[in-house]
Amino acid sequence: MRRFEVGSVEVGGPKLTVIAGPCLAESRELCLQVAETMVEICQDLGFGYIFKASFDKANRTSARSTRGMGLEEGLGHLNAVKERFGLPTTTDIHESEQAFPVSESVDLLQIPAFLCRQTDLLAAAAATGKPVNVKKGQFLAPWDAKNIVDKLVAAEANGIMLTERGTSFGYNALVVDMPGLETMRSFGVPVCFDATHSAQRPGGQGESTGGVRDSIPAMTRAAVAVGIDALFLEVHPDPANALSDAATQWPLNQAKVLLSQVAAIRNALGEPVGV
Prior knowledge:
Elements lengths: L3 E3 L2 E3 L5 E5 L6 H18 L2 E5 L18 H15 L3 E4 L6 H5 L4 E4 L7 H9 L4 E4 L10 H9 L5 E5 L2 E2 L5 E2 L2 H8 L5 E4 L5 E2 L8 E2 L4 H11 L3 E7 L13 E2 L3 H14 L7
Parallel strand pairs: 3-4, 3-14, 4-5, 5-6, 6-7, 7-8, 8-11, 11-14, 14-15
Antiparallel strand pairs: 1-2, 9-10, 12-13
């Protein structure tokens, strides 16, 4: 397993890494609120924690959907989290030109699922020297993700992770191939499970993506039982009124219950959750 560091957090080691935050960096106050709650939960449970929020949502279903705060303001919110809590941070990039300016603020670059095969984008992310987390496209089989790893290895990426976020199943539906987690892990890189995006129903509300929030705990428990190195959750204190992914963000006040179940499963499997 090719372990790597994201700030002070080791990914691929004995501790589970939690990547969590609001889908969109809606405001500085929201980012700080979520980070404060999540860092306390992860410290209590012995998980490594990386804060996540997007400065731009370039792949919204409709042109009328909220995009985000933009590069400067959005990264400012992430920097505020880093300064207040000393946390490593991550966000997604959509164009090769964004790689270097974003890498100056965050510790882990995320490649969106729809862009996972974009060779120039992968190479640009690797060239920053920051580790790269790639969301596996909804259109890819688990074994196809080996080509993503090979591209990043060739580009000399300083850390590679693959994230499962569901596979297209007909129209407006996703399913998760749990054995596929093991397939991707066999490529020698850490694997993350994105529980909240896996609950989506893409385009299921016409001009926005829907989802089944109630399915998140079951999928999370199943993925942890199979074996993952990281867990990705979008969390929000008021999901129904979130500006993005309102149907599938996990309520912040229920995060500890869900992550306590994760810790219990790892304990039952004999996998350490930290000290």
